[in-house]
Amino acid sequence: MKTEQRVIEVTETPRPDDRPVDIPVISIENSSDSSYGNEEYFGATRKQPKQKKNILLILSLLTTILIAGVLLWIFRYNLMETEVPVSVSDRENIEKLQQPFTPTAKGTELISDSVLGVAMEIYPLQGLRASLETELPDTADRTLVLFTRSADYHSDGSLIGTVVNEGRKVNSKERKSRQGYLAISKSGRPVTGVSLSDKVADYTAQNGGSFFRQYVLLGDGELPSSFHLHGKVERAAIARDADDQLYYIVTRHKETMYDFADAMREYGLTDAIYLTGGNSYTFYRDSTGAAHVTDRLRQKYAKYNDTPLPAPLLVFRQ
Predict the structure, then answer these.
(1) Nearest-CA neighbor of 133 among 220, 240, 210, 247?
(2) Which residue has the higher pLDDT, 7 or 100?
(3) Is the pTM value of this prediction over 0.85?
(4) Nearest-CA neighbor of 178 among 210, 226, 221, 216?
């Protein structure tokens, strides 16, 4: 048997340049052309994309927290903002309550006036001793000069807003929903103001005084942007002028809260808080000692003769 030999010819392909054939050509591979990244080449596990994702999540979370903090601060600032400018600070009113007080007035005088079409009866309160009392006062008591309602109340008997009576805090709800207040020192000095803080109330509680909250009608000569009560009824208020003199004011006819507040501002009063009840508790004793009692007040006495008062009365005495 013959063995057939095959001859394989090797043909060298000439290079395109003049380099010898036996010199190898070294090609440097670009990392972008590699089937694996540099991280894999050096034994890494491709953590860079995951790290970037985590950083973005952290930055997003921090941004959300920052925005939420700013919105919360703005919301809290708006909540803490009073409805009207404050003409007398809590500190100033506490300093007034700390001063000695001796009642000097024997009575009050009725001042009738009409401003902007609102007929008002104005009673100066200078030199009168104030208190909160839980029973109808005796009109035959010659020390009694004037009295009216104070805080409002719910149907369950709880009072609305912070109330302190002779150093004792009374069961109440919605403690700061009404920004106006009237505070009374242990000696009977009354002061009025506007505040969301309970600093003045706490002072009266610690020092045997009294305190209640009501709606604001005027603050430093300005009206609130809106009023909480609407419609027309007889209105009443405790107001203060620029000379720090207090007045009890009632309307003779039914008025809106806006018209009542605007008339008091036009009259020259700077601060005022609302009192419910209108002129139904109208009673006053003049400087001669004569008592003035209305039929509506007699009806109140008949109603509450055997029934406890739902809220303490604000009473002024000689």
Answers:
(1) 210
(2) 100
(3) no
(4) 216
